[in-house]
């Protein structure tokens, strides 16, 4: 069953919304991140001193780095210890391929990070805000790791916030251990895993940290002529041709070679106003799918049933019916609007994957089926499973036509389905969103037609929003 913490405990969604906390969807990581820049602007009382805690923690690292004479000396080891952020269970945000536990910072990652910070400090920059920008110039450090680091530093504040919200909403808590080195505390438990849950204020969450805007190579080359000229000498061709790792490497060396540039970036970053994530628009498609899919069975009924001992064909028939209903919802009931932001820009493919995952789960639950969709945190191929007595496999893979891997994804699956003994059955659910050329679309159609009978069934849904009647009649 796909449900949020609030729904599991019967909390009115409006009341949970008013609490200011993100209502975590159990078993599904919401790919949003704690943005340290938003700690400057939050009005959450428990987080009033959080910004100062973050600054002081990283300032202590800088003070130690200033005294490092060689790798692994006493100052290096003490700085390294301050950069150890053990996994925190229960944040329910970020990237986690299995479950909702964080990943922490390993020794090799810390070594690379500390080496880079040491070079930057020796070049003349000692601002603690460097650590908030590090995701833009250090390979292997992304917004999820920055978010986990910040969460660990302000964990006591987040626990207090969680306790207040749960007390106000009547969500039960239990004394539980949630991270190495921290004392057990009263926290709500995930009913599925019995692991603790820590609530996060929506005010401090974003899809991408603001820091990545200012420490991005595009912003830098626009605002610093000397660096732009130097990069133009080094880079043959367009900056846009660089891989993400190459872009980070160029930024890192620009900060080391041009200390004034980093100061300029930090100044711009710290002057940035509140840039909160718009949860109503949800441009990342990380939250709106849940409520939208949850209410659909009440609005548009779909009868589904399975025999006591279902075969692969029985399960496939139900899954196909769900897919065709999803197609109808996309085309005729304007569910496709959730695949675009308020400016009409296409959302990431994961928005469509989460939406289908939610719809499939909602209809299976509404029909009380012993059938559940499972996937990697709601993303990627959806594997429909039965608790017992079924050894086959029915998969649904969602692809947008804007995905350049549309044809490759289909080709990759073919060998699996074409084995004579294969128990696989599957559907390749394609959503058209105008992101494909006529030639590429025709090539995909020809690939499907030539693939033979033992191939995934292809269902195509028109995901381009229809104009309103008044506009269409103009």
Automatic annotation (TrEMBL):
Source organism, top-level taxon: Bacteria
Protein name listed in UniProt: Uncharacterized protein
Source organism of this protein record: Chitinimonas taiwanensis DSM 18899
């Amino acid at each position: 069953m796909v449900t949020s913490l609030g729904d599991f405990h019967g909390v009115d969604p409006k009341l949970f919304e008013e609490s200011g906390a993100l209502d975590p969807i159990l078993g599904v990581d919401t790919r949003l991140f704690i943005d340290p820049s938003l700690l400057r602007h939050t009005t959450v009382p428990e987080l009033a001193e959080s910004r100062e805690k973050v600054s002081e923690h990283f300032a202590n690292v800088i003070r130690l780095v200033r005294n490092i004479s060689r790798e692994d000396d006493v100052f290096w080891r003490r700085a390294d210890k301050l950069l150890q952020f053990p996994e925190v269970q229960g944040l329910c945000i970020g990237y986690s391929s299995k479950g909702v536990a964080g990943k922490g910072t390993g020794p090799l990652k810390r070594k690379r990070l500390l080496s880079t910070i040491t070079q930057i400090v020796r070049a003349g920059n000692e601002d603690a805000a460097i650590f908030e920008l590090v995701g833009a110039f250090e390979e292997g450090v992304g917004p999820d790791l920055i978010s986990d680091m910040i969460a660990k530093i302000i964990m006591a504040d987040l626990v207090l916030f969680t306790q207040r919200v749960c007390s106000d909403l009547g969500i039960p808590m239990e004394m539980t251990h949630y991270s190495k080195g921290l004392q057990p505390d009263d926290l709500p438990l995930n009913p599925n895993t019995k692991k603790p849950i820590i609530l996060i204020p929506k005010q401090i969450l974003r899809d991408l940290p603001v820091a990545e805007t200012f420490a991005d190579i595009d912003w830098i080359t626009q605002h610093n002529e000397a660096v732009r000229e130097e990069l133009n000498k080094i880079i043959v061709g367009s900056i846009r041709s660089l891989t993400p790792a190459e872009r980070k490497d160029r930024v890192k060396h620009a900060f080391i070679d041009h200390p004034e540039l980093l100061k300029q970036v930090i100044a711009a970053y710290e002057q940035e106003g509140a840039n909160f994530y718009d949860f109503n628009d949800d441009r990342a498609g990380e939250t709106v799918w849940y409520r939208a899919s949850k209410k659909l069975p009440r609005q548009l009924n779909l009868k589904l049933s399975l025999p006591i001992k279902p075969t692969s064909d029985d399960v496939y028939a139900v899954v196909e019916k769900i897919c065709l209903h999803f197609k109808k919802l996309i085309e005729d009931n304007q569910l496709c609007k959730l695949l675009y932001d308020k400016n009409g820009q296409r959302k990431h493919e994961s928005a469509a994957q989460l939406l289908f995952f939610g719809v499939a789960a909602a209809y299976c639950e509404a029909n009380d089926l012993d059938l559940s969709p499972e996937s990697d945190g709601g993303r990627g191929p959806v594997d429909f499973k039965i608790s017992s007595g079924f050894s086959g496999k029915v998969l649904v893979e969602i692809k947008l036509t804007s995905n350049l891997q549309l044809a490759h994804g289909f080709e990759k699956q073919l060998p699996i389905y074409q084995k004579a003994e294969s128990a696989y059955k599957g559907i390749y659910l394609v959503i058209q969103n105008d992101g494909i050329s006529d030639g590429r679309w025709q090539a995909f159609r020809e690939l499907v037609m030539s693939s033979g009978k033992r191939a995934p069934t292809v269902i195509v849904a028109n995901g381009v929003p229809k104009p309103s009647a008044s506009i269409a009649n103009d």
